[in-house]
C-alpha cells in the first residue's frame, strides 16, 4: 500500500516536472520569436538608413544637375592639339553633368563607362559615360552631319581595329570632325589627315590616362 502511494507520488512529481519543462520550452520559444522579430526590424531599419545615406551621398546635394569640376582653360600647342590646363574632377556622380566643352575632355562622370574597344556608335552618347571611357585611356572620335560620309566611314574603320577607341556623332560640337582624349582635343580636316594617326599614337592609352589598363569592355553599349 505504502509502496503504491510512493509510486503514485513519484509519477505525479515526474509529470509536474515534465509540465514545468514544457512550459519553460514554450516560454523560450516565445522569447526567441520576439527576439527574431525585433532583430528583423532592426536589420530592416539599418538597411533603410544605409540606402538613404548612399542615395544622399550619390545625389550630392539633391538636385538633378551639376557642373563638372573642370577648373582651367585650353592652351593650343604648335601641333594644333588643345591641352586643358587646370583641374579635371574624377568623382563618380549620378546627376547630369554640364561640361564647359563639347565634347568634354574630362571631369566628374558616371560610374559606368561606354565600351571603347573599337566601338562605333551611330547615336550620340551620354557625355557622362563617354568621359569615363576617356579616363580609361581611350580616344573618342566625334563628328557632325557636316562631315563627309567617306570620312565617317574611314574613321569608323580605323576605330574598329583600334582598342581603346570609340566613335559617335555629336552635332553640338563646333567642327565636323574632332578627336578627344582625357585633357586633350583637336580638330582634323578629314580621315586622311596625318594628325589623326599622330593623335591616336600619342593618346590611345597615353601618358595622360588617369587609369591606364582599366577596362574598355563590360560597360554600356548601344
UniProtKB/TrEMBL annotation:
Region (Disordered): 1-27
One Pfam family cited in the UniProt record for this chain: DUF3105
Residue intervals passing through the bilayer: 34-55
Biased composition (Basic and acidic residues): 16-27
Entries under InterPro entries matching the protein: DUF3105 (IPR021454)
Keywords, sorted A to Z: Membrane, Transmembrane, Transmembrane helix
UniProt feature, compositional bias: Low complexity: 1-13
Name the UniProt record assigns to this protein: DUF3105 domain-containing protein
Lineage of origin: Bacteria, Bacillati, Actinomycetota, Actinomycetes, Kitasatosporales
Amino acid at each position: 500500500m505504502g509502496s503504491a502511494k510512493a509510486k503514485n507520488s513519484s509519477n505525479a512529481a515526474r509529470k509536474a516536472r515534465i509540465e514545468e519543462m514544457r512550459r519553460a520550452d514554450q516560454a523560450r520559444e516565445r522569447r526567441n520569436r520576439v527576439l527574431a522579430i525585433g532583430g528583423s526590424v532592426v536589420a530592416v531599419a539599418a538597411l533603410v538608413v544605409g540606402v538613404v545615406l548612399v542615395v544622399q551621398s550619390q545625389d550630392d546635394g539633391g538636385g538633378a544637375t551639376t557642373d563638372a569640376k573642370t577648373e582651367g582653360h585650353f592652351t593650343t600647342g604648335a601641333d594644333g592639339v588643345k591641352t586643358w590646363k587646370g583641374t579635371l574632377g574624377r568623382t563618380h556622380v549620378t546627376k547630369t553633368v554640364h561640361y564647359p566643352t563639347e565634347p568634354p575632355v574630362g571631369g566628374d562622370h558616371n560610374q559606368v563607362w561606354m565600351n571603347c574597344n573599337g566601338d562605333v556608335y551611330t547615336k550620340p552618347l551620354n557625355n557622362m559615360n563617354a568621359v569615363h571611357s576617356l579616363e580609361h585611356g581611350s580616344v573618342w572620335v566625334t563628328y557632325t552631319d557636316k562631315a563627309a560620309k567617306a570620312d565617317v566611314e574611314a574613321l569608323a574603320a580605323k576605330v574598329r581595329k583600334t582598342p581603346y577607341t570609340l566613335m559617335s556623332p555629336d552635332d553640338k560640337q563646333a567642327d565636323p570632325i574632332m578627336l578627344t582624349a582625357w585633357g586633350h582635343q583637336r580638330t582634323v580636316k578629314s580621315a586622311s589627315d596625318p594628325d589623326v594617326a599622330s593623335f591616336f599614337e600619342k593618346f590611345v592609352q597615353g601618358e595622360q590616362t588617369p587609369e591606364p589598363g582599366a577596362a574598355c569592355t563590360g560597360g554600356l553599349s548601344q
